[in-house]
Amino acid sequence: xxxxxxxxxxxxxxxxxxxxxxxxxxxxxxxxxxxxxxxxxxxxxxxxxxxxxxxxxxxxxxxxxxxxxxxxxxxxxxxxxxxxxxxxxxxxxxxxxxxxxxxxxxxxxxxxxxxxxxxxxxxxxxxxxxxxxxxxxxxxxxxxxxx
Length: 147
Ligand SMILES: [Zn+2]
Known about the structure:
Blueprint: H1 2-8, E1 12-19, E2 23-30, E3 35-36, E4 43-44, E5 47-60, E6 63-75, E7 85-87, H2 101-111, H3 116-125, H4 132-141
Helix pairs in contact: 3-4
The structure holds zinc ion (ZN).
């Protein structure tokens, strides 16, 4: 299972994996312990707190796959910086994203030629949970047509 996480990003590792009836839940985190403030680029390793982000990834064997990604909040000690803390960024998901970039690509690829309601049903049968309106929003963002 750790190899699966390495395919997502080689700097991440698997802490725990639970297989449920319709979901696979994988707890992961980055192996990095040095971070850079996104506002001023100063390095920091002073952890303020930790939380988990829930991010849907590509399904595995028809099961919805959820990544629980340990996300650190760090202090920025640069007195010139406007921010006192910042959150760890993950390369495979946007800042407030709920889906990995590779899952978003898969959804877009399957949604371009069918109506959003058909796409939503088709994706559900493959283990991807997304509403018709979320598909519409994604298509609009990527300048596609929404059926
Ligand atoms: Zn800073």
